[in-house]
Design brief:
Type Iii Antifreeze Protein Isoform Hplc 12; single chain; about 15% helix; disordered N terminus; five-stranded mixed beta barrel; about 325 residues; about 35% strand; five-stranded antiparallel beta sheet; rod-shaped
Length: about 325
């Protein structure tokens, strides 16, 4: 609510500001009382409490919804006398008039702006952030909580916009407010919808798509379902949140320190030996294995659970025959 005080003169179509009234102490305003009005005009009945024909006499335009203004006591008293209304304003320095108001939900404003942004950027989904400090849009208490957008100016290079918001959307009492903000693109990304244990395998039914603001995506986030399906979480991941590629890995087929069968093949010859895996590895990944007999270390490709095909970089005899 704007608490700046205004003096209303006899010319009812405009407000006449008074520096002395702007400096009126709060205590004096309380002594004068506050008259709350709903309509676009302040009437004699609302100020004096009179009834009948004189009650509908217009005294001055109402302030904007949610704002206050101060009426000049002498001028109101003269108008009351002119219409045969008995009113004793002694002891009052002025009458503060407040226009009742209702706050338009922020989501209503954003929805209207988003709709207009969609026409400026076909094929993209943009959402608005309002940057006006302490933004509040008020309309008369009895008015519909609707808005429409005028003159939206969208700067695609900077991702910013400026728009005139009319509230309510129709009616002679509509107020216009300039809103400035930024337009952020929404992107679809795959997320987990079920809790998958660390070391488990992500299935197709564990994955769904959600819309995420581009400015909240972060780096290295999975953008395709095949980047998740068949993978294994390194830890328990939160559902319905973007997944970093560093948080998933190929499912572990050979575990660190587990016993594996080392296989070396040559034309007409296959050698096998027992070894110990020196790290975790998934199917098709390379792992280092220590020969249980010779204590030599070789590298191999994981072929399946407990099976590693050695990449021969040492003499074949380094692999003991079973």
């Amino acid at each position: 609510m704007n608490t700046a005080m205004k003096t209303l003169g006899k010319t009812f179509g405009a407000f006449v500001l008074s520096a002395s009234l702007l400096a009126t102490p709060a205590a004096a305003q309380t002594a004068a009382g506050v008259v709350v009005v709903d309509g676009p005009w302040v009437t004699l009945g609302e100020i004096t409490g009179t009834r009948g024909i004189a009650a509908a006499v217009r005294v001055a335009p109402s302030p904007a919804p949610g704002e206050r203004a101060m009426l000049n006591i002498a001028e109101v008293a003269a108008l009351a006398k002119e219409h045969g209304v008995t009113w004793d304003p002694r002891g009052l320095r002025g009458v503060t008039v407040e226009r009742s108001a209702a706050v338009v939900p922020r989501d209503v404003v954003l929805e209207a702006i988003n709709y207009e942004l969609a026409t400026r950027a076909p094929g993209r989904t943009l959402v608005a952030d309002i940057l006006n400090a302490n933004f509040t849009l008020q309309v008369a208490r009895t008015a519909p909580l609707t808005v429409r957008v005028e003159n939206l100016d969208y700067d695609a290079a900077r991702g910013t916009f400026a728009a005139t918001i009319v509230a309510p959307a129709t009616g002679a009492d509509a107020q216009r407010t300039v809103v400035r903000g930024r337009a952020v693109e929404m992107l679809q990304v795959p997320v987990l919808v079920n809790v998958v244990a660390a070391g488990g395998v992500i299935r197709q039914t564990d994955v769904a798509w959600i819309d995420v603001r581009a400015d909240r995506m972060g780096q290295g986030v999975a953008t395709q379902t095949d980047q998740l399906v068949g993978q294994s979480p390194r830890r328990v991941l939160r559902v319905n949140e973007p997944v970093r590629m560093s948080d998933v890995q190929t499912p572990i087929v050979v575990a660190k320190n587990s016993t594996v069968t080392m296989i070396v093949e040559r034309p007409g010859l296959q050698l096998t030996a027992a070894g110990r895996a020196l790290g975790n590895a998934g199917y098709g990944e390379i792992v280092q294995v220590m020969n249980a007999q010779t204590k030599t270390t070789v590298e191999g490709i994981v072929e399946g659970p407990g099976r590693v095909r050695v990449v021969a970089r040492r003499p074949v005899q380094d692999v003991a025959v079973r």
